[in-house]
TrEMBL record:
Domain spans labelled HTH asnC-type: 1-62
Cited PROSITE patterns: HTH_ASNC_1, HTH_ASNC_2
Species whose genome carries this gene: Picrophilus torridus (strain ATCC 700027 / DSM 9790 / JCM 10055 / NBRC 100828 / KAW 2/3)
Pfam families the UniProt entry points to: AsnC_trans_reg, HTH_24
A molecular-function term among this protein's GO annotations: sequence-specific DNA binding
InterPro entries noted in UniProt: ArsR-like_HTH, AsnC-type_HTH_dom, Dimeric_a/b-barrel, HTH-Siroheme_Decarb, Tscrpt_reg_AsnC-like, Tscrpt_reg_AsnC/Lrp_C, Tscrpt_reg_HTH_AsnC-type_CS, WH-like_DNA-bd_sf
Name of the molecule in the record: Transcriptional regulator, AsnC family
SUPFAM superfamilies: Dimeric alpha+beta barrel, Winged helix' DNA-binding domain
Keywords for the protein's UniProt record, in alphabetical order: DNA-binding, Transcription, Transcription regulation
Gene3D superfamilies per UniProt: 3.30.70.920, Winged helix-like DNA-binding domain superfamily/Winged helix DNA-binding domain
Amino acid sequence: MDDKDKKIIEMLIKNSRTSNMDIARQLNVSEGTIRKRIEKLVNDGIITKFTIETTSSVDAIVLIKVDPSLAGSVIKTLKAEYNDIYEYSGSVDIAVRLRCTSLDELNSEVDSIRNIHGVINTDTLIRLK
């Protein structure tokens, strides 16, 4: 990964909807070059998801206790679905940050996490401010 790739990633982090043409103009390269570089970054697993955030959302942290023998499997499953995953030592093994459009969506996501094989318990903290 070179400096141009890093700049592409920085631009997409700031705004995942930035067009290839806009990126190309700012980096003084062709749109095709940007398209190929992004494709390579995706294929190499460096870029894994393109996401958006909304202003009307419910932010929450789901604290997860897992069966230690299944921790790797649980983490792999979570990484396939969520971006913000943190591993801890102590009474909580994993924390997942969720951004949902409603409490119903949050409830559905938490239910999905609870149904992952190896999850023992969850505790959900909803951001108030």
